[in-house]
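User: My advisor asked me to double-check a structure prediction for Peptidase M50 domain-containing protein before group meeting. I don't want to rely on an old file, so could you generate it fresh from this sequence?
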Amino acid sequence: MNLLRELSMGEIVSRIAAVLLYAAIQGLALAGFARLLGDKRPQYEGRLTANPFVHISVWGTVIAALFAMSWVRVVRFDPAQNRLGRWGLLLVAVLALAVVVALVPLIDLLRPLALLLPRTGGYAVLYVAGQLQILALASAALNLLPIPGLIGGVLWQAIWPGEERRLLRLEPFGLALVIVAIVAGRLPNLANMLLPLVQLR
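Assistant: Sure, here is a fresh prediction for Peptidase M50 domain-containing protein from the sequence you gave:
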């Protein structure tokens, strides 16, 4: 496989480090905004935490290491508890994705701090930061897709709030479709095109 020959071990390791940071931020943002809107379910299910291992998806990590885009383990919501009702789920999703996109210029502001570290450590931090920017932007674009298993899949819960069990059964098929599309090159990584537009000059 050409892809594996093109990737260095350092690149794979830095992407795994980046996906841990991404999962912590994205998962906490989803649970946090849901809680702010009155939905206690993510908190009761232990998702209101910055621990990346609570939020991380195994297949999302594999795809992140190989293709620099990912997703988190699905956060379950209760539309009945949301102050805005079922359509509040869409607001939670949009706000959580916006937090991840906002990381990209914020990381640029924090880059000078890496220069205070010893040279090897500083280079490692800068490399992971660059991978996190690419991963955050590409993952935000990917998760806009209304596919069960991705963040955009909450659209179906908003449309059919009483069909959670059916949507749960569709999630593995949705993620399998996403994985096949990424591996086949049908879902290109948009981060390389969009990153220069959102980075600070």
